[in-house]
Amino acid sequence: MSDRPGVGTLREKPLHAALKRWYAEPGDLVEQPVDGFVIDLVRGDTLIEIQTRGFSSMKRKLPQLLDRHSVRVVHPIPLEKWIVRLGEGGEVISRRRSPRRGAAVDLFSELVSFPGLIAHPRFALEVLLTREEELRRFEAGRAWRRRGWLVEERRLIEVVDRLTFDSREALAGLLPDGIPQEFTTSDLADGLRRPRRLAQQMAYCLRAAGAIATVGKDGNTAVYARTEVTS
Q1: 55 and 99: one domain?
Q2: DSSP 58-124
Q3: pLDDT, tens only, 87-102
Q4: Residue 97 is part of which domain span?
Q5: At what angle are helices 196-209 and 185-192 packed, to 10 degrees?
């Protein structure tokens, strides 16, 4: 990995920096300008972007880069998260494990920004399943859902696993076991044990990628089925 200072590192968050260090291999170029954009890692002919959240910010960049390059987006999803509360002086006043556990299917809440790109021959999405710390600091009158506790930063504890999605078939592999041949987003939510909102996002992404198709309606509810895979 090149140790040349990058133009995008001054305001880099700890989680992003840690994942970049973890992912980088010897010979990678760091924070390289390519076609008017600054790329996190350049590995041979492949451009690698570490995106911790907010895929919408990449909607303009990715189609332009894919015209000439292979692109891999790396996205962390915390299987386990520890909530760390900091005092006014930065000291740790409490640390507890969040009851919510993440899963690979959570990627669909971000992938809605460009679901069709999964079918692009030069695009891949890699999900890193992680353990993280989320540091929070109190500020009165802010973040009312968290009672004034603002998320200051996220820190990587470890990477537990990694999954690559580079085709509609790979993405369809996230459909839950036992899902009916024809199904609704309610069936999907039940099978995933996730809110229906995420099931709707998943169905939208899979349909845009060509992995499922709308085959009818049950009242006002769309009914989906897997598409046939042709070789």
Answers
A1: yes
A2: GTTHHHHHHTTSEEEEEEEEEEEEEEEEE-TTS-EEEEEE-S----GGGGHHHHTTSGGGGGSTTEE
A3: 888 889 999 999 999 9
A4: 14-166
A5: 110
41 occurs within a structural domain: yes
Give the total number of structural domains in the chain.
Answer: 2
The 3-state DSSP class for residue 226 equals strand
What average pLDDT is seen over the chain? 91
Q: What is the pLDDT of residues 48-82, one digit of tens each?
A: 999 998 899 999 999 999 999 999 999 999 999 99
Residue 103: which of 128, 82, 125 has the closest Cα? 128
Q: How far apart are CA 223 and CA 148, in angstroms?
A: 42
Nearest-angstrom CA–CA distance, 71 and 65: 7
What is this structure's pTM?
0.88
Tokens of 199: 């099931």
